[in-house]
Amino acid sequence: MQLRYAFRIEPGPGQRVALGRAFGCARTVFNDCLRARRDAYRRGAPYPTSAVLSKRFITEAKQTPERSWLGEVSSVVLQQALRDLDTAYRNFFASLKGTRKSLKISEPRFKSKRDSRQCVRFTANARWSITVDGKLNLPKIGPVRVRWSRALPSVPSTVTVIKDAAGRYWASFVVETDPADETLSPLDRDQGIDLGLTHFAVMADGSRVRSPRFLRRAEKKLKREQRNLSRKKKGSKNRTKQRVKVARAHAEVADARRDSHHKLSTKLIVENQAVSVESLSVKGLARTRLAKSVHDAGWASFVTMLEYKASRYGRTLTKVDRAFPSSQICSACGHRDGPKPLHVRAWTCSACGARHDRDHNAGHNIRTEGRRIRAAQQAVLPTPGPGASRR
């Protein structure tokens, strides 16, 4: 199982210049190869292969006066830029054919030095290393200080250096782990979660997690910084400085939301053998008047965290279909009492007279439906024969 660990790095002034040079060279190779493929498409010629592009825009380009500065960075960075282009085209064609299970994506576009995210990737061939004193030694850049927050579980295969819109630098490591080493002890407990806006999550056992509303709480500061940005002259250094301030304000909101999601998802996965959650249509809800609150909640990223952590730690995540009427069914007797408007937060069952909190009742029904789905999946699994080996 592949995992990605990201850590803040603190390059010095000279190292920032070297990283900026690496970003620019990788961007140039990407754009040159993309332009060549687009020109071939317009002429009706076959797409040039990666080997042809590598020879023309990397090996031979270094010998020309116009591109001689490509030799100032590691060649692995340039080769990885070409691989990124191949991956982008592969995903684009898979999206056209319908074999890619996601939204339709467009053709690769040219990169710009004004993009909010710049990155370069170093593989093992680049001979990068982690020094004895914990620094990240990169070719033609030097040892960079890393803010280690945890130990890596194994030797990383690649490292990607990223500069985000807020001017922060990150080192993202890809490591291989054995899922058997991280599987948690089985538990006889499961949980159902009803996601909402007032309360981010209401559990089947009655516990609640209030919605932090990170974006709403930071709106005053964001408005002030954005207003200051709009008053700066375009192209000026003051506008560039203010743009970074705006990006940092948004990064604080995103980081706080991500941290909250990580803590809650880890707690749920560690304390429960199975977790059931409703598969919400976030894209559809984002078209309503509640769009800002829906984006602020970040349900999709939270469910994604639950999904990969369940796979990592040997737990089960069950997604209940959004069409399941979790708010209409009485969790005590099973009677379906019909749809209710959103302002109705509590109701009484017309069949058994039980009084229900809307969200708690929905969480209980989602847990029950999740149990039913898991039982049905177990029933259709083939039973191993007497001579089958157990692993």
What are the SSEs and their pairings?
Blueprint: E1 2-10, H1 13-43, H2 50-59, H3 75-97, E2 118-122, E3 129-130, E4 136-138, E5 142-146, E6 158-163, E7 169-176, H4 179-182, E8 190-195, E9 199-203, E10 208-210, H5 214-230, H6 237-271, E11 274-278, H7 282-285, H8 291-297, H9 299-313, E12 316-320, E13 346-348, E14 355-357, H10 358-380
Provide a descriptive summary of the structure in words:
The chain is an alpha+beta fold and 391 residues long. It has 10 helices and 14 strands. It is elongated and about 85 Å long. The mean pLDDT is 91.
Roughly how many Å is the radius of gyration?
26 Å
Strand order of the largest sheet: 2-6-7-1-5-4-3
- Shape verdict: elongated
Largest sheet: 7 strands, antiparallel
- Low confidence ranges: none
Question: Portion of residues in helices?
Answer: 40-55%
Structural class: alpha+beta
Number of DSSP E strands:
14
Instruction: Please state the average pLDDT score.
Output: 91
Q: Supply the number of helical segments.
A: 10
Q: How much of the sequence is in beta strands?
A: 15-25%
Distance N terminus to C terminus? Answer: 18 Å
Order of helices and strands: EHHHEEEEEEHEEEHHEHHHEEEH
